[in-house]
Amino acid sequence: MGSWLPWRKLASNPPGLDWPAMPWQARGLYALLLGLANDAGRIPLGRLGLPSLAGGINAPWSEVRPHFDALVSAGWLEVEGSDVYLPHFADSQRAATTAERVAEFRKRMRNDSVTDEKRPSNEPLPDCNESVTNRELDKKEIRLDQNRKDSLVDSVPSQPELKLEPQQAADANQKPKESSKAQIQAQVALGLFAELVAARMSVIAGSEQLQPRPAALAGLKACLGQGYTPEQIRHVIKLKVAEVRADPGQAKWFVPTWFRPANVERYLALREADVKPRYQPGVPNRPPEPPKSPTGNPPGGLNFKELRAKVETDRTPEGDAKIKAELDRILGRTPT
Question: Of 158, 192, 246, 256, which has fewest CB within 10 angstroms of its CB?
C-alpha cells in the first residue's frame, strides 16, 4: 500500500475458521480496507455510499463488491449508516503482552514435529539457538513471578517520602484514542477525492484512474483547513461536471489539483443553470455584420449625385453663416 495510508497490523491468528476458508481476494481486500480505517476502526463513506470505496483502493466497484459481501457475511465487516465498521480492528492492532508472547512461543515449540536434531522428548539440543531463547524466556518469567510475589509482601519503602501507589490494570473496554483534526480532514479529503474521480470518469470518456497521491490531495485538504465544508466542495464538483458537459474543452481543468481554495470560492456562488457553453454548436462564433449601404436610389427618385447637386444649388449665405456659427460654438472657437 502507498505511503498515504497509515501503517496497520494484520492478525496472525484470526478467530474461527471463516478467515482461511474465504477466497484470497476477500482476504486481500480486508488488508486494503485496514489502511483506509481510522484509529476507531471505521471507514467514513462518501456521498456515493459503498461505491466510494473503489476510489480509495483503486479498483472497480463491480469487481470489489462480491468479496466485500463475503467479508460482511463472515462478520469481518459491518455497514453502519455512512460508515464501514471493522469489528476485529481493535484486537488486531493491540500489542501482545510478554506473557502472551511466551505462551505463543511455547505453543509453537510443542506443536513442532520431532526431527533428528532434537531429542526423543522433543526437547531442543543444548547448543541450538532455540534452547538459548527458551532459557532466556524462562528467566524473564521467573523474574516476573518474583516481582509479583514481592509486591504482595508488606515491606518498608526505601524512600518514605514517596507514596507508593498500585498500578491500575489496563481496561479491556477502554475506547481507542480519538482521531485528531488533521486525521479526520485527511479521511474526508480521501473520500472527496474518490467522489471527484468517479464524477470525472463519468463525464470524460477514457479518463484514467487517478491515484490519491499527496500532491493530488493537497488542494482538498487546504479547502477543508480553511473552513469549506464537504457539501460545498461537492457542489463545485457538480458544477465542473456540468461545465465539461457544456464545453468538453474544459475537461483539462477537471483535475484534483484545480480544487484550491481560490477556485472553490469563485464557484460557490454559481448554480448548475449558470453554466452555459462558450459557443453554440453549428453557429459561427463571430460578431454580427454591420448594415450594408443602400444600393438603390434614395427617397424622391434622385440618386446621390443628383441629390448633392440639388443641395449645393439650394445653399444660401444666411444658411452657411448659421452652420459656421454652430460649428464655432461646438468647437469652442471665437467667431471671426
Answer: 158
C-alpha neighbours within 13 Å on the C-beta side of residue 21: 8
Nearest-angstrom CA–CA distance, 71 and 59: 17
The Cα 229–Cα 224 span in angstroms is: 6
Q: What is the pTM of this model?
A: 0.34
Give CA–CA dist 238/208, Å, rounded: 19
pLDDT digits (tens, 9 = 90+) for 47-70: 888 888 888 888 888 888 898 998
What one-character DSSP code corresponds to residue 237?
Answer: H
At 267-323, the pLDDT tens digits run 888 887 777 665 555 545 454 555 555 555 555 555 667 767 766 777 778 777 877
CA–CA separation, 97 vs 75, rounded Å? 26
Element (H, E) at 42: strand 42-44
